[in-house]
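Q: Sequence in, structure out?
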Amino acid sequence: MGEGGAVEFYIENHLKWRLLTPGDWDEMLSLRAQLEALDDLVLPATDRVIRGAAQSITAGDAIGGWDSYGNLSAFGWNIPEPGSHPAKLFLLGGVHPTHRYQGIGRALLAWQEERALAWRDEQHPGEPIWLGSYVEADQTCLRHLLVQRGFLAERYFFDMHRELFDLPRPHDIPGLVFENFTPERSHQVLELHNSCFSAQIDDDAWAESLGEETFRADWSWVAIKGDEVVGYCLSGTDDAAGLDGVMEGWCDRLGVAGAHRHQGVAEALLARSLRSMADSGCPAAGIGVDTRNRAVADWLHRVLGYEERDSVTLLGKSIPAA
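A: Exactly. Output:
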């Protein structure tokens, strides 16, 4: 037994291991902050992707390794997604650079997968389980370890940016009219948005997003056929994502009705939004993309001149019922 009755585990022989408890929360956050700074990671964005982890550690789902000086130097944390069917677990973890290339990450990942299966057998006996892990562009070792264990790339999340000069000319599409977004079109755009994406937005959350100071209706466009909204690009400012601290325009939401996809509607909407930003004196623009198709980044670069900056890949592994 460890301090305070914590159970010690053998993961590998370089660090002293035990299960993490709620009392270790601050120390784990400190290690994560060090990893973010040392590796120049986009981990906060990863947390947003999984809607943040609960601010607590469930007994048995997280483990830590301490060095001989008593410093937490590695951790692994399995985070279940509430209400998911089949059951889903996200695997988070990290090893301090001073302890890498000693097989610690490999051993830690093996423990996390073993623990995930034990959790499945306890909480969802006889059911399949899905394991997922987010990997940033420069985390080649982690990607390699996950692929070795049978994980495959499932989704890509990336931010793309461009300066607002030499802009593509907005093109027209026969049968469609392009207009700036107005409040009168708000409900139609919401309905289209909820038909395009599985994550639904209710009326209150939608109204709140349009009421943000950062939202710019004059940078936002809709595509209309008859009196039906068939595409939308809602944009605003994102000072935090600016180039070298300069204000940057940002495409917050982009969607096209299924019957009108692959006809250049998204390109036409984005081109108009970029032009509106430039006409207002905005020097740069960005867009965040969540897609199963990695080629979307190539399309945004080729057609609209965006350059990829930050990217995260979700690797997943489905394990059938025992």
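The longest strand covers residues 307-319.
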